Amino acid sequence: MTTVLSTGIEVLDRELDGGLPQGSVLAFLASPVSQSELFLYEMAAIRPSVYLTTERTEADIIDGLERTGTPTDDISVHRISAEAPLEEATTAIETLPEAGTLIIDPIQLFEETEIDAYRTFLNELKTRTAETGSLTLLHCLEGRRVPDQRDRTEYLADIIFDLSTELRGGHLTNSLSIPKFRGGRALPESIELDLTSDVTVDVTRKIA
C-alpha cells in the first residue's frame, strides 16, 4: 500500500484518500491574483519543509507564514537568485529531510533557463523527492505570460492541481481541479476553496 502524506487541508485529504503519495512532485497552477501562497503555507506547516523563493525575500516569506499563524521553526527558507538558480536550488534541495516538503515559489525563473539544464534539474528533483519520501510543490503562476517550458514542468510532474479564479456575482471564487494524478486518482469534480487568511474548503462542490 502506498504511503501518503497530508496536504494540511483536512477536507482535501479526505477527497484524496488521506493525502498525496510519498515521492510525488506536484505542479500547482494558479493565477497571481488568487492568493495561492496560502495553499503553500498550509503545505509547509504540516511537516519539516524547505521553501525556495525566487521572487520575494526570505523575510517576506517568513512574515507571510507568521501572519497566517504558521510556526516557522521547521521551515527552512532560501532566496534563489537569478544568477545561478538551478545550482543554488540543487544545493538547497540536498537539505530536504525525510518525509518533508519542498516548495519552489514560483517556478518561472527555472523554466526560463536552458532546456537541457532544466530537464536535468527536474529529473534530479524527482529523484531526490523519491529518495526522501517527500512531497515537492512547484508553484506555477499562470499570468499574462506563461514560460515556454511550462509544458515540460506539467509533463514531468506526477500530480497537477489547477486553481481557477473568477469573479461571480461580485464574489471571487477559487475552484481546485486535479486533472492529473499518477499513483492515485484524478478527481472528477472541482472543489471550491476559500482563500482568505488561510485555506478552507467548501463541501458544496460543483461539477468541473
Explain what you see.
- The protein has a single domain (4-207), classed as P-loop containing nucleotide triphosphate hydrolases (Rossmann fold).
- Mean pLDDT is 90; it is low at 203-208.
- The chain starts with a strand and ends with a strand.
- The chain is of the alpha/beta class.
- The longest helix has 18 residues, at 115-132.
- It is globular and about 45 Å long.
- The strands form two sheets. A nine-stranded mixed beta sheet has the order 5-4-6-7-3-8-9-10-11, sandwiched between helices.
- It has helices at 10-15, 37-45, 58-67, 85-93, 108-111, 115-132, 150-156, and strands at 4-5, 20-21, 24-30, 49-53, 75-79, 101-105, 135-141, 159-168, 171-181, 189-195, 199-207.
- It has seven helices and eleven strands.
